[in-house]
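Example S7 (structure tokens).
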């Protein structure tokens, strides 16, 4: 979603607001499970729903008040598992 900025000059600059969704996460590395020494699935809200809910709420508020931001705003949600990503392996 693109929310145009209100300033003629600054609207050519962009701010990206994003959250990830992929439904399931695992307690691993620094994403620890609630049970010590256990790798376990984090269902929905633990892993994604709170960030996506914030993103949708913020997008709704910004869209309702287009004068509130001088720069254009890109609202995006991303999907992608952390497992197998090179930087993730290096950090862990």
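Recovered sequence:
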């Amino acid at each position: 979603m693109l929310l145009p900025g209100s300033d003629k000059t600054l609207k050519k600059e962009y701010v990206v607001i994003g959250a990830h969704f992929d439904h399931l996460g695992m307690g691993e590395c620094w994403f620890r499970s609630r049970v010590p020494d256990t790798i376990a699935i984090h269902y929905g809200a633990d892993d994604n729903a709170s960030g996506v809910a914030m993103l949708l709420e913020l997008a709704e508020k910004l869209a309702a008040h287009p004068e509130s931001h001088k720069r254009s705003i890109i609202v995006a949600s991303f999907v992608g598992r952390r497992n197998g990503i090179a930087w993730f392996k290096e950090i862990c």
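Notes on this example. The helical segments are 49-64, 86-91.
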